[in-house]
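In this section we walk through a basic example: taking a raw amino acid sequence and producing a predicted 3D structure, encoded as discrete structure tokens. The instruction is simple. Fold the sequence below.
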Amino acid sequence: MSLAGRSTFRANPRYDLVPADRLTQADRRLLGEDADLYGVLRPQPGSELDARSCSTDVALLFLTLKEPGALPAFARHKLGGDAEGVLARLVADGVVEVLTGRGFVSGAAAADVLSPVGSSAGQGRIAELSMEALRYGQTLEGLSAEALAPRLYSYGRIPYSPALRRRVPDERATEKFVGDVAGPGWAQRPAWSQPRSPWRLWTRASLRHKPHDDVAYKLYVSPAFDAVPAAVAAVSGTLAASRGVIAFKVARDVCGLCRPDKLVVYFDRLDDLRQGASLLAQEIAGMPAHGVPFTSAVTLDGLLSWGADPPPDARLRTSWRMWVTQHLADYLAAAAGRTDEPWQFALQRLQMAGVDTDTWAPTGSTWREALP
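The resulting token sequence is shown next.
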């Protein structure tokens, strides 16, 4: 039976609905100016729930379901074909509970009545790394979502061992190891080479136009540590004349070279990224790979993958991969201790947010949907 077809729901009794005009001025400023905002769902003391802003439609549904019953007719009419997805998100987030043989449940406890997870968590090596990261994350019980997110984001980083410290002891040694990459066709950007920046950046010397005020597409080039010089040389030589390339950056110190996302190429358009990736894949085929979790695979060995950053004027100051890992951390933390496999609930809930966890590829509408 579909979730919307189940007979009985109720508003979560551990939430209090507070209209916006009864909030403090500081709280109202945080919520912003939204004409459809009704107020806030405020968790009762001792609840593990999170406070949530609430639209007028959700508020009406919440108030109606104070008395348990079927999904109201107005909600079925209003939601139409979106009813199943919207209701699943409300149940997964604990706003609404559904009656099962175990009583009223929501969140991770309702995972078995939500849409099943049919995801491979990516393709090839990226899938393996992403699944490993999720399973690792669910073992870290007791960590807050804020503490868990960076662990997911940096999963796969190789240890900064004493041997590496002796081999590449400082920034000057790192530059020597990486090699001279600011050749013809590229110009170094001093503003990106300040001591506090973790990156060295090069842009196209011929770049005269301002990049589109839209999503910035990122090609991750993720070689094993010893292959970094060859990979950087390949990027510099192969992509200097490639259409749509805005810039590329490489980690400026040995700690940065230990991370999976150590070398990134920026493109103005997704089609240009795909063409550039095809050229580069031929040049570096067979190179030992590291692999960046939670990115969209270009090559199955994990050597090349891609993601996207939000528009430069967006309120969301994050990257695609950071946005994904922050949300996965939220869902893992919410499911801890409430289901045997929190990673399954995390994938399930991310799918409800519109992310294709089979590819980890951001869609054109992803940032527009994420900003609210």
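Looking at the output, two observations stand out. The chain has 14 helices and 13 strands. The first helix runs from residue 25 to 31. In the next section we compare this with other chains.
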